[in-house]
Structure prediction request, 295 residues.
Amino acid sequence: MNQQIVNEVLQAVDNSISYQDGKVTVNDEKVFRSKVNRLAEISALDGGEKAGWARYFVRAGAQAIGVYPASIHELYMARGRESIKEHFTVPAMNLRVLSFEAAKAVFRAAEKINAGAMIFEIARSEMNYTDQRPAEYTTSILSAAVQEGYTGPVFIQGDHFQVSMKKYNADPNTEIEALKALIREAVAAGFLNIDVDTSTMVDLSKTTVPEQQVLNTELSSLLTAYIRQVEPKGVTISVGGEIGEVGGHNSTEEELCAYLSGFQKDLAQKGKNLVGLSKISIQTGTSHGGVVLPD
Prediction:
């Protein structure tokens, strides 16, 4: 540990937090909330050990004042059981640019309507072309929550943890291991919601719908079982599946039933009592690229 670097990072928030014997203490919550943007800047613009300490202090400091990454699984299960009578949507926002500032705007808007069920997500592909790894993304989101005075769970999600058909066909093991490595990295960073997207492997050339979904169910169940292995103790990560690519043909009830049936069968073979999916993405006629839809 480089004590000089640690001191520099702590001074960035005017020593409103302290670090001793592996424990982070918030000495002045008001100052910490007002200055936490400096840690977000170090996380995004610096590198190496300094960025690492900034991310650690944000995560630990936020936790200490009641701001923490969480899984939305139990909320979805309660909605499914109709234990929650209120009707509401859960928007999921992919923040690719100025993530800290954009997330601050989200928390401000949420405060006006007393909302808390919203997801901040970033896809596997977006991590690459925006150069935002999970730890940096989590830091930006939690820092925004802290600075805007938010308290409570924050739902951060890995969106489209997608299998590349080209890479899978060339070397299946390498592509799957790459996804497992990303899952480990994301979970460690506080991504407690992960959308497993193996819909790229749906083979529409097959005769029957169940046959078309075989590789999709096999791979999504494999990755779901892996998530159950690495999820934190006491946490059920919300896992999403997908049966249709955005921009493709609209999903059908037959495809949904075929996918669910195959997934549950495949997952049961990978371990007893493994928790399955809490949501499934389907194609409903939407598209990417700024196309104005009829509504």
